[in-house]
Amino acid sequence: MPKRSNVSLLTEGAAYIQRKKKARQDQVEEIKFDDEARREWLTGFSKRKKQRVEERRKRAKERDHQEHLEERRKARQELKERAAQNVKDVRAALGLPELQVIVPCRPSLHVCVIGANETESDDESEEEQEQIEEAYSDDDQEALVTITEGFDPTSEARSYHSSSDEEDEEKMVKRKSGVDLLPASSKRAEAKAKSKAKAKAEKAEAKKSRSMETPAERRRAKEYEARKRQKKFEKERERNGGEIPRYSKSSKGKPGKKGGKPTKGKRK
């Protein structure tokens, strides 16, 4: 028997290990059936489809919401810019110097100045007058303040009053003036319109009150109206000397109703 080396003795089991490992790799993986998972997959087509539709609907709703917020932001910005431009146009039409208007430039709280620094004439006025600009800022907002030295508040062409003061002055003028502001025809038309509106309101109120009456109250009201008509008929009869009053046809009478004035004579 030949003598074996130490290497062959120490690695004798390696060949068996390699053959066993190769056999495990070539072995077909066992297939196991999960009846619960199979049933869930076969019966979940509709549920998965509804879930996908719901997810798409949520994404579309969120997209529309973001577009709506963006449109509102743009509309607010355009409105602020238009207001600043209107102020400039009005002051230019009145011959007043331009006024610096501070409006927000973005949805954030930073502000920008629209006003005297936009034209060449304003640049010239800056050279004539010494102006000091100071910036104030805190955690919430940032503002730019321009201080003009040697500013004379009495140089304005005209003084402006608030709308409330103007309304008070107009009221005082109307109270002091003894002449009516409206002609007689307009006053009559106004009074007639007011009377019509009042009559219409009373009629609506009466109709509303009648709609809330009980059947017994409506029956008593009908009996009362019938007695009033009978009394009126008796008075007309006595006035005609015991004869039944007969009503002639006129433009005011309507078909099926009494119209015109009563005439003397017996009814055929």
Question: How would you describe the overall organization of this protein?
Answer:
With 268 residues, the chain is mainly alpha-helical. Among the domains are: 60 residues; 29 residues. 56% of the residues lie in helices and 10% in strands. It is built from 8 helices and 6 strands. The strands form 3 sheets. The chain has a two-stranded antiparallel ribbon. Strands 3-4 form a two-stranded antiparallel sheet. A two-stranded antiparallel sheet has the order 5-6.
Gyration radius (Cα, Å) is: 49 Å
Strand composition percent: 5-15%
Encode the helix/strand succession as letters: HHHHEEHEEHHHEE
- Largest sheet at a glance? 2 strands, antiparallel
* Rounded mean pLDDT score: 72
Shape: elongated
Quantity of strands, as a count: 6
Q: For the largest beta sheet, what order do the strands appear in spatially? A: 1-2
Tell me the number of helical segments per DSSP (H or I, 4 or more residues long).
Answer: 8
Question: Helical proportion?
Answer: 55-70%
- Low-confidence stretches are 107-121, 128-133, 156-162, 176-181
The assigned structural class equals mainly alpha
Please report the distance between the alpha carbons of the first and last residues. 163 Å
